[in-house]
Amino acid sequence: MHTEDNCIFCKIVNNDIPSYKVYEDDAVVAFLDISQVTKGHTLVIPKHHARNIYELPTDVARDVFQAVPAVANAIQRETGAIGMNVLSNAEAIAGQTVYHFHIHLLPRYGEADGFGAKWETHQDAYSSDDMQAIAAGIKANL
């Protein structure tokens, strides 16, 4: 298991600092986010340290994403949430503040529950040719 000495999530993985764990297996830990943006807000992290999605090895991603539905369903059953946002931020521009890959599970209870995830769309700014070029460029980089 690869860990970083100064990483708060690695310290949680190693039980060096306390957390409110809700799930743990050989590769993954899930625990309540101390910010509790909404009741039940949980983080799912790999025990393997990776900065974010860009550095996440495929096998580690498989382990994390395999745990996400079980944890999400447990949160929903416990809290009665009517929806859930599943998100991960990569780098500061996207809102990442802890540089250890993690997935936020944010239970949703209604429009005024404390979390907003609305964005502008720009579909009129891209022609069919633009969309084909973007898609081709991404495919070429896989």
Automatic annotation (TrEMBL):
Extract the CDD domains matched here: HINT_subgroup
Task: Name a Pfam family for this protein.
Answer: HIT
Q: Which residues form the HIT domain?
A: 8-116
Tell me the active site: 102
Motif Histidine triad motif at which residues?
100-104
Q: Which InterPro entries match?
A: HINT, Histidine_triad_CS, Histidine_triad_HIT, HIT-like, HIT-like_sf
Q: Report the record's Gene Ontology biological process terms.
A: nucleotide metabolic process
Cite the GO molecular-function annotations of the record.
catalytic activity
Query: Would you say which domain of life the source belongs to?
Result: Bacteria
Quote the PANTHER family the UniProt record gives: ADENOSINE 5'-MONOPHOSPHORAMIDASE HNT1 (PTHR46648:SF1), HIT FAMILY PROTEIN 1 (PTHR46648)
Protein name stated in the entry: Protein hit
Q: Which organism is it from?
A: Exiguobacterium chiriqhucha RW-2
Q: What is the lineage of its organism?
A: Bacteria, Bacillati, Bacillota, Bacilli, Bacillales
